[in-house]
């Protein structure tokens, strides 16, 4: 079912994420907001801190994303920076490192910081990312620069390289469905890398479109990262990927503290808890904020189970 769903339904769902009329309609439906809470615990810092406390009580690590992307004005970019600084102030002193690993992390999209601005976008986004990284370093929180669509990859990696010269804790993301990703993993194997499959509707000229091909490339990329000197972050809910990890670890010198699993808030919670109880590092990606629609649609597109969950809720309203 996965391959057929990816081929037929996923592009249509992702297209809905770009339709402003559908967005306005969805945001007005009370049932939508109730279902969204499965994936997005709230719109405020207070709401996300409650979710963080619940996750940390079960030994899970946390990555927090203030939702928002594709910013087209400097005022909104500045507001997003201030939101992250307020979040980091609230996180200060909440947790100590676990075996050299920061329990708390923030995830940034460069387009939320101004990268897409018509004038000096890269410069503005870099300066804004520096401001967030400086405060994160002061309070002991990691930063990961998130991936967006393939057209932004080279610019993102160039900015990440600048940030890493001053902030060695900065990580970034490789999306395994892109043809270039195996090469990127070889280049970045000394860094902290979140390896995910990818959540955007990319053309076949740059990305694998078949579910099994994406999984196969994910495992090739993961083997490179595990063999490298960096810190792999295995961002997947796929049973085939998770089942392959112990074998890859046995073939390397890595122990439980030398990598982490990452999963999304509200998805496969039982598996998150099982891995954490097994002594592995498990980090949960927790988004918050008012700009939840695009994130929500990508979660529906990733797995048929998520879409069916939403449709059943709609039918029952």
UniProtKB/TrEMBL annotation:
Source organism (scientific name): [Mycobacterium] wendilense
Key words of the record: FAD, Flavoprotein, Nucleotide-binding, Oxidoreductase, Proline metabolism
Catalytic activity: L-proline + a quinone = (S)-1-pyrroline-5-carboxylate + a quinol + H(+)
Superkingdom of origin: Bacteria
EC identifiers of the protein: 1.5.5.2
UniProt cross-references to InterPro entries, sorted A to Z: FAD-linked_oxidoreductase-like (IPR029041), PRODH_bac_arc (IPR008219), Proline_DH_dom (IPR002872), Proline_oxidase (IPR015659)
Taxonomy of the source species: Bacteria, Bacillati, Actinomycetota, Actinomycetes, Mycobacteriales
Proline dehydrogenase domain sequence ranges: 50-309
Pathway given in the UniProt record: Amino-acid degradation; L-proline degradation into L-glutamate; L-glutamate from L-proline: step 1/2
Keyword Oxidoreductase among record annotations: yes
Entry cofactors: FAD
The UniProt record lists the keyword Flavoprotein: yes
Official protein name in the record: proline dehydrogenase
């Amino acid at each position: 079912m996965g391959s057929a769903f990816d081929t037929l339904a996923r592009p249509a769902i992702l297209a809905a994420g770009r339709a402003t009329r559908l967005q306005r309609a969805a945001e007005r439906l009370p049932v939508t907001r109730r279902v969204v809470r499965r994936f997005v615990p709230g719109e405020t810092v207070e709401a996300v801190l409650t979710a963080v406390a619940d996750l940390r009580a079960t030994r899970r690590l946390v990555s927090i994303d203030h939702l928002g992307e594709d910013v087209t004005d400097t005022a909104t970019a500045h507001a997003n920076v201030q939101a992250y600084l307020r979040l980091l102030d609230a996180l200060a002193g909440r947790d100590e490192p676990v075996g050299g690993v920061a329990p708390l992390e923030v995830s940034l999209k460069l387009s939320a910081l101004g990268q897409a601005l018509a004038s000096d976008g890269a410069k503005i986004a870099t300066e804004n990312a520096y401001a967030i990284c400086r405060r994160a370093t002061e309070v002991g929180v990691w930063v990961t620069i998130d991936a967006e669509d393939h057209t932004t990859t080279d610019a993102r990696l160039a900015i990440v390289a600048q940030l890493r010269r001053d902030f060695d804790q900065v990580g970034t993301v490789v999306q395994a469905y892109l043809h270039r990703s195996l090469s990127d993993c070889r280049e970045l194997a000394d860094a902290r890398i979140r390896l995910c499959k990818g959540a955007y509707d990319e053309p076949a000229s740059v990305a694998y479109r078949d579910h099994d091909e994406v999984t196969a490339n994910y495992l090739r990329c993961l083997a490179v990262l595990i063999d490298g000197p960096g810190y792999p972050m295995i961002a997947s809910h796929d049973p085939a990927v998770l089942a392959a990890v112990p074998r890859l670890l046995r073939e390397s010198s890595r122990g439980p503290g030398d990598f982490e699993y990452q999963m999304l808030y509200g998805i496969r919670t039982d598996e998150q808890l099982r891995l954490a109880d097994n002594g592995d590092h498990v980090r949960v990606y927790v988004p918050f904020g008012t700009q939840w629609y695009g994130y929500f649609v990508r979660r529906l597109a990733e797995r048929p189970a998520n879409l069916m969950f939403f449709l059943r809720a709609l039918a029952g309203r």
